[in-house]
Specification:
It is a single chain. By secondary structure, this protein is of the alpha/beta class. It has 17 helices and 21 strands.
């Protein structure tokens, strides 16, 4: 083991590891037949895999065993390291381990929010209303619609000034009017569409002022911003539950994470039951464990995934999230500055990073060009991977695009699913990670300028297929030949 004095931290560590991601140099052949490196600008959907986490987890697999035992070497190692993973994440988000527990869930942020929506419903059954914002991802919207009797959507504010974060006055108004019925407020820390940052601790203070709990969707924030859940001197600013996903935190294949107050969880029987969360099972009853996180993790957990995620968290913490934020801001600010210079571009949320701080994501459209066509051209001609459509945040996207859509379609009908409407009612999103560089930004801007200048030449080569996607008429890469599981198995066995 190296001495602590020799270990890199901060900017030096970031410089060492920022390119150490699996898939960062993956080449694909473009329309011109040239193989070029993929520019990955889809990190908000899923980030690339941090290579050190993959390597360290592979080393752990030599010792893999199930947990909840220490009577043979491998079980002892697995149990100890899995316990470390929980503690590491609690520390990373500033959650006092005496007050909070961390547990892992299957389907990322979605399963965690569903779980905590049911928990909050059951610990306060007389309070039947949840408050969310119009800007939420479906994962922080639909679970509340399903598990609560009523959901209030608070609007964003300042559309005219392009400040599209939650309206705190409207939030307080909803809390005041619903006093006695509001169970909890659940808000995204960072929008997956615009990257706009919400003031989560101000929101927490408002929720607690009116007797409501506060849950934070941290899917887009934990990998990009410093996170603090507990403030001993400011209890109203504390977060009751925070949920995030490993696959958006540089660890694809890892589970979702819930950090929640133990007292809330202890007041009801665990949501999920099975092996590992009981002390004793008799024919007519069973005794649930008092200890955390065991009582919240029924069954065999995703041990390697949790360890990989905690390994990534450890390295991010050694860099320092403030350092990481400052470096990512350079990429965002350059992107916004360059986009502001293109009059043909609409940037949702505006281009003034000081007026409207954001993290990781920028959504935009080129005037008069369908979002799907722009995304297809960026991929096919420039090997730039972006995402398009509505990013599982339909109400927010509709809110921002309403004026333009009304010009084309008149009054917007909620159920309008026509092919033409769907091709217009969406955006292009470029999203960044700690591996994104200023060179990536320059390449994106250059490609956008090229598209704007030569859209007629590009568009004639595309048609719309049965899935309403823009497809190049002659460029049809055989993705099955690039990678398929059976072929990889055959190669390995040959």
């Amino acid at each position: 083991m190296r001495s602590s004095e020799a270990l890199l931290t901060g900017k030096s560590l970031l410089d060492k590891i920022r390119a150490d991601f699996i898939g960062l140099d993956t080449p694909y052949e473009n329309v011109q037949g040239e193989k070029t490196r993929r520019i990955y600008l889809d990190s908000t959907a899923s980030s690339l895999m941090f290579r050190p986490a993959a390597k360290i987890t592979t080393k752990f697999l030599a010792h893999y065993s199930n947990t909840h035992s220490k009577l043979h070497h491998s079980a002892n190692i697995s149990t100890t390291v899995y316990d470390w993973a929980h503690a590491r994440i609690l520390s990373f988000v500033g959650a006092d381990p005496e007050i909070y527990t961390c547990f892992f869930t299957g389907a990322g942020t979605t399963s965690g929010i569903n779980r905590m929506a049911r928990v909050f419903r059951d610990i306060k059954p007389d309070k039947n209303t949840a408050i969310i914002s119009i800007m939420e991802h479906h994962s922080n919207d639909l679970p509340h619609r399903k598990h609560m009797q009523r959901v209030i959507h608070v609007p964003v504010e300042g559309l005219d000034e392009n400040r599209m974060c939650i309206s705190l006055p409207r939030l307080e108004e909803a809390l005041r009017k619903g006093a006695g019925k509001i169970n909890y407020v659940s808000i995204t820390a960072v929008s997956n569409v615009t990257g706009i940052i919400n003031p989560i601790h101000d929101i927490a203070r408002l929720a607690h002022k009116y007797g409501a709990l506060i849950m934070i969707d941290g899917a887009q924030s934990v990998a990009h911003l410093p996170t603090q859940m507990f403030f001993p001197d400011d209890p109203d600013a504390c977060i009751d539950a925070l949920v995030f996903s490993g696959h958006k935190t540089y660890t694809p294949g890892s589970p979702g994470v819930v950090i929640a107050r133990k007292d809330h969880l202890s007041s009801i029987e665990p949501e999920e039951v099975g092996g590992g969360m009981v002390d004793r099972v008799l024919e007519d009853r069973y005794l649930v464990k008092d200890s955390f996180p065991d009582r919240e993790e029924a069954g065999t957990p995703n041990i390697p995934g949790a360890i990989a995620l905690a390994t990534t968290i450890e390295i991010l913490d050694r860099i320092g999230m403030q350092t990481l934020l400052e470096e990512e801001d350079k990429v965002l600010e350059r992107s916004l500055e360059e986009m502001a210079a293109l009059p043909e571009l609409i940037v949702y949320g505006g281009t003034d990073h000081d007026v409207c701080p954001r993290a990781a994501s920028i959504s935009f459209n080129i005037c008069g060009i369908d979002h799907g066509l722009v995304a297809a051209i960026l991929n096919d001609h420039f090997n730039i991977a972006v995402r398009n459509q509505c990013f599982c945040a339909h109400p927010y996207v509709k809110e921002m695009m309403a004026e333009d859509l009304e010009k084309d379609f008149g009054t917007i009908e909620l159920g309008n699913m026509s092919a033409e409407f769907m091709r217009k009612s969406g955006m292009v999103r470029a999203s960044f990670g700690l591996y994104s560089t200023l060179e990536d930004v320059e390449f994106l801007i250059s490609a956008l300028k090229e598209i704007i200048s030569n859209i007629d030449d590009y568009s004639k080569d595309y048609s719309v297929n049965g899935d309403n996607d823009y497809i190049h008429k002659s460029y049809r890469p055989e993705h099955h030949s690039i990678f398929n599981v059976v072929g990889a198995i055959d190669d390995y066995l040959s």
